[in-house]
Design goal:
about 80 residues, mainly alpha, 2 helices
């Protein structure tokens, strides 16, 4: 299992999740006849924050894997 590929797919999933929530908020049509919002803005913002944290976590995995790879290459050159 390649951690960089796994993290890359995680980055893409987090990006799609963030964009879907952003589109929901951007596409709000205002209030419906009952006075309730068509979109749960608070829920979508929570989704966006979770997607942001997932993106950051996957990015950290990529950075860590790159650091490990660099360390291995340094050991081989000695």
């Amino acid at each position: 299992m390649d951690p960089i590929s796994t993290a890359r797919y995680g980055l893409m999933a987090a990006t799609r999740r963030f964009e879907a929530s952003a589109e929901q908020i951007a596409g709000m049509r205002g209030m419906d006849g009952q006075g309730a919002a068509d979109v749960d803005v608070a829920g979508e913002i929570v989704n966006m924050v979770q997607a942001k944290h997932a993106f950051s976590a996957n990015l950290s995995v990529i950075r860590f894997a790159q650091d490990m790879w660099d360390s291995l290459l340094q050991l081989q050159t000695r």
